[in-house]
Amino acid sequence: MKIAALVSGGVDSSVALALLRQQGHDVTAFYIKIWLEDELSFLGTCPWEQDLDYVRQVCDQLNVPLQIVSLQKEYHDAVVSYTIAQAKAGNTPNPDILCNKQIKFGAFYTKFGSGFDAIATGHYAQVQEVDGIKRLMISPDEIKDQTYFLAHLSQEQVAKAMFPIGHLRKEQVRALAHEFNLATKDRKDSQGICFLGKLKFKDFLKYHLGEQPGFIKEYETGNILGNHQGYWFHTIGQRQGLGLAGGPWYVVQKDTKENIVWVSRHYYDLDKVRNKVTITQCNWIAGKPTQDKVMVKLRHGAQRHEATISFDTSGQMQLHLNNNDQGIAAGQFAALYHGNECLGSGVIV
Questions:
Q1: Active site residue: 46, 59, 194, 342, which one?
Q2: Assigned fold of 211-264
Q3: Rounded (10°) CA dihedral 222, 226, 228, 231
Q4: Selected catalytic residue, list 59, 99, 282, 342
Q5: What is d(CA 95, CA 38) in angstroms, rounded to the nearest whole number?
Q6: pTM of the full predicted structure?
Q7: Whether 194 is catalytic
């Protein structure tokens, strides 16, 4: 097959590239530049250099041609603007999900990928075809599984997707990197946004929204407990980073007009029922589910809840969880599963 492989300079995409080469495919590697230079000026150094150095080493070693392409404007318009607007509204956006849908499997394919049979990435996910329909399946590594980040892809996008390491666990990928003796074999996993591991989400918000000092108040009494630098730095259910004594304290609400972050020590009390979620902008990869019992992820990770689906008169989906989840946050995505299949996702409102 003729394959466009998206590479980031990390071990996962490097091993994916090596496996494609080993399987005899006609592969071209692509490194996508997404961040506008002025957004990165505060980092002080060129953020592309180290990643590109690793990418070039791996491509040279595997004898794979490399193209460096820019989707900076598309990324800013589709992902950055959305993320800023959601954060300013007090919601908790997920730029990685938008990056996959709008950029890697969206604008990239439209602009550069139409001559290829498939777009390959280093995601931990699998694609299976059943009765002519492509289905997104989880990775055997439940902790690394990344179907949550891919759950908003369309059927057309999943049909073009290829995940060469999706059937492997992380330790197997590391072992293969050493077996292939790749330049990235010992490189640490990045924890940043999308392709750029150097940029932390808090830094991203600070650059675009700045700081705006406000009060942290106790939800039950209204007492002022401390100060924060902007409600957009905090998310519902957050415990770490509040700097308050006498806790544990948890963020339970944000007042965007008054710039107040409300916290409580009683977030996990038994009377605090948090088991209903309203979902909009539903995306079904292989068609709307026929069953009313599903599993749901409210964030990336291994945790899944049993849930019952219903739809209200406006077409919004209601999820009734079998147990409480204290981290339900508006703006985040909920991904739905049936067995090992990821059915799709929607936005929590």
A1: 194
A2: SH3 type barrels. (2.30.30)
A3: -20
A4: 99
A5: 19
A6: 0.89
A7: yes
